[in-house]
Amino acid sequence: MSDDLDTNQPNSLEITLSTLREEGIQRLRNKLRRGQQDMADWRGGKLAVSAVPGAGKSTGMAIAAAIAIARYQLYSKRQLAVVTFTRSAAASIRGKIRKYLKDDLSLPQTGFLVYTLHGLALNIAGRHGDLSGLNLGTSTLVTPSPSHKIIRTCVEQWIVKNPRRYSILLEGNAFDGEETERLRRQSVLRTEVLPNLAYTVIHEAKSSGLLPEDLWRLSEQINDGYDILAIAAGLYEQYQIVTRSQNFIDYDDMILAALRVLENDTVRQQWQKQFFAVFEDEAQDSTPLQFHLLETLATDAENPNAPLNLIRVGDPNQAINSTFTPADPIYFNWFCEECGGAEAPTTNNEGDDAVAIKDEGAEAPTTNGDGVRRLATMDRAGRSTKSIIDAANFVLDWVNRTYGESVAFRRQFIRPVDSNDPQVDANPQPTGRGLEIYHPKDIYQTVELMGERVIELLTENPDRSAAVLVRENRQGTFIAQKLEFLKRQYGITVYDVGSSDRHSHIPGEIMALLQFLDRPHSPDYLKTALEVLVKRQLIPTQDLNALATYPEQFLYPGPLDPPQTPYVRQAAQYCRSLLKARIELPHYHLISFLALTLKYDQSELATVDKLGERVAKQTLGNMSMNSTISVLQEIVSSERFEPVETDEDADSRYLRKNQLTIITMHKAKGLDWDYVFLPFLHEDTIPGNPWVPTAAQFLGDFTLAEVARAQIRASLHKQPLPMAMEAWEQAAQLKTAEEFRLLYVAMTRGKRLLWMSAAERGPFRWNTFTGKESDNLQVKKPCPILPALKSRFPEAVVALSAVLH
Ligand SMILES: Nc1ncnc2c1ncn2[C@@H]1O[C@H](COP(=O)(O)OP(=O)(O)OP(=O)(O)O)[C@@H](O)[C@H]1O
Fold first, then answer.
1. What's its catalytic activity (predicted)?
2. Separation of 391 CA from ligand 1 center, angstroms?
3. Whose CA is closest to 380, among 97, 57, 47, 789?
4. 29 lines ligand 1 (CB under 6 A)
5. Cβ atoms 275, 296 nearer than 8 A
6. Which CATH code is given to the segment(s) 20-124+256-342+369-378?
């Protein structure tokens, strides 16, 4: 047989195609910087990629995915599972992979699936309902907060079943048996301490793959007076009973259900065969349970002992969920160590305050013995100007030197990109001093200074973006109120993400209107409905008390009643049209009708849809006005209602030009702006101190929830279980570490200017601050990082005399 006819030999068309494919791969690879290229060069097995902020994790992962699809020709065979944390990140990475496949590789846009972790779990659990034990059609997904009815119910049931443990808690410290004090303690335990304990431990244990019986076993290892872990185990047990009996599932149940499915050999192998490999982004944010799911899917079906086909990309220094989820950065650090060795490749080897970075560091091979690179560090980042990078590196180093092991960052320093880097305008020139540090006299002057700087910057460069990053929403509301004039006078939009995106107003507004429709003659309901209409600017502002006093007269004025002013007439007409709709529309259309009436925007309407579904589910078989209102009442009074992010990319709303976005540091993760303002950097919030609410101090100088969390975490981290006071200290360290990571995330959002300040005077607590000048301000200590930054970078300190006009 001649060579030409040998079907095993590639024919000339195949050779051409393969050459073209290889050229395409090389072109794409050349778009990457070092570190990113390690991902593109992946040829199977495990790879950990530890990246610094702005290193291009998502870009690198998208190109690496497109290359793997081309190289292994997955478009015609198996699929690559790309997993990330949020829906908007999933949408963005999906779009990028499609683009690279089409534009750079001329390939069909298939061969991969992008999931969020929960989406992936839901997919697996949903396809095998028989094995998962999850009936998605009949169950309700819940995200219980401490005040949620489910948590309250399990607390009540636990108390009934555990009178002895409960009375030990009641006695606490220094109890003299006095009745009023007993009642007070009872109320604190039932409504605060036990719900918080239940909420914390259930999530912590469940997301770590622990069952109530595991907590029971743990509780036997330690005796801390109250047997906190035994109480926790009992609460968790009740929670499982209550949720099962009512067909509720939580997010952890979804992951657990998927894992149950994968216990079946045949089904597991099917999934393992379907997935060629798993690429995970934001790996520092996964819980142990989530990681277990990915590990299972990345296993070779035929040879379970072969290395996993798994790339995990993350930045342990940007882990900012570890105090409210079990996603501790320690897990990703462990993965990195397992892949390539404990030491991060860059180092601070110079004098005390300088952060110097060895240039050859990142190139040092980090393998786990097989000669193949298994740990890559992406430490070049083009986002920020050099002075911002220096400040962020300094913070990392300073925290490590000041606080030691328990609070330490992973030692990886950010380095500017090479001069031939593909990123446009990488490491831009600074605006002003690049890093500017202010020390205003109070919070009012802080906002004034920010306002002036924003006017200067955005008037000069209206095509640039700016953001104020706050630690809590209340600070954002205060700033937004004070800077409202920017739009009017300078055309600069002030976008307060907290109030625009929270959407928590929606259930309350819909409920107010429904209550009015149900009982239009109630002055209270009428007034509340009118308030909503005024707030939505649907009727003119006026004295609503006057309208609501006599509802009948307001709604249906008779010939003998005094004539209504045009404003009143407009309001009355509006209310009558709502009442008419109530009669004409079927009940199940009312909520969406009201949403349209209130002129909600697209993303608010998506939230209303979700709310409508939720109400329909909970009122199934009894869909009356009363039942709808009572479901809404429950939502409004007791729980967080998660808004829906619409696909009209939420991120781009935060990044608009000529806009000052006010956003929390948490929500700013993954985003960047030309100018970033960090006001109110005070020691009591960053790093802050965990504190025991006065009402609960009768139990001791710690909170049960934090102690239980630290004990569970110690066991997961293979450490001895700490006693209560030691556990409390560990909780404090966990918080300190997380607050500094949060500050680091916030600082690294800035491209050209990072503006930082701590006012001399500020409110005692932001959550009780009304923003009125009459509120007393107190002397505040700055976050300890500020004096350190000032002495290291004296040129960044801006004297007030230089800027006050
Ligand atoms: N190889 C590259 N060529 C050109 N631009 C790049 C490259 N890699 C990243 N970028 C750009 O750098 C910026 C930061 O990238 P990306 O958002 O992927 O970083 P990140 O590591 O996910 O950031 P963070 O850790 O702060 O969330 C983006 O604007 C991206 O387009």
1. ATP + H2O = ADP + phosphate + H(+); Couples ATP hydrolysis with the unwinding of duplex DNA by translocating in the 3'-5' direction
2. 20
3. 57
4. no
5. no
6. 3.40.50.300
CA of 557 to the centre of ligand 1 (A): 64
Q: In what order do the strands lie in the sheet with 659-664?
A: 435-438, 750-757, 673-678, 466-470, 659-664, 493-496
To the question of domain 435-501+649-687+750-803 being in CATH 3.40.50.300, the answer is yes
pLDDT one-digit tens code per residue, 747-776: 999 999 999 999 999 998 887 776 766 668
Beta bridge partners of 48: 312, 375
DSSP secondary-structure letter at 699? G
* Residue 684 parent element (H or E): none
> Within 13 Å and on the Cβ side, how many CA atoms surround 108?
9
**Position 219, amino acid:** S
Q: What is the pLDDT of residues 216-241, one digit of tens each?
A: 999 999 887 899 999 999 999 999 99
Which residues sit opposite 659 in a β-bridge? Answer: 493
CA distance 482 to 473: 14
Neighbours of 153 (CB within 10 A): 17
d(CA 387, CA 394): 10
Coil, strand, or helix at residue 211? Answer: coil
Per DSSP, the residues of 333-395 read: HHHHHHHH-SS-S----SSSS-----TTGGGS--BSSSSSB-EEEE-B--SS-HHHHHHHHHH
Residue owning the nearest CA to atom 16 of ligand 1:
56
| 800, pLDDT greater than 70 | yes
Helix residue spans in 162-227 (DSSP H): 163-171, 179-188, 194-207, 212-219
Q: Which two tokens stand for residue 171?
A: 């006695």
- For ligand 1, whether the C-beta of 315 sits within 6 Å is yes
- When mean pLDDT is compared over 177-181, 493-497, 586-590, the highest value belongs to 493-497
Structure tokens at 61: 């992962």
Per-residue pLDDT band at 341 (split at 50, 70, 90)? low
Mean pLDDT of 154-159: 95
Query: What is the reported pLDDT for 502?
Result: 59
User: Which of 120, 61, 67 is closest to 286 using CA atoms?
Assistant: 120
Cβ–ligand 1 contact at 314 (below 6 Å): no
SS3 state of residue 257: helix
Confidence of residue 56 (pLDDT cuts 50, 70, 90): very high
∠ CA 416-375-252, nearest 5°, is 105
Q: Whose CA is nearest to atom 18 of ligand 1?
A: 56
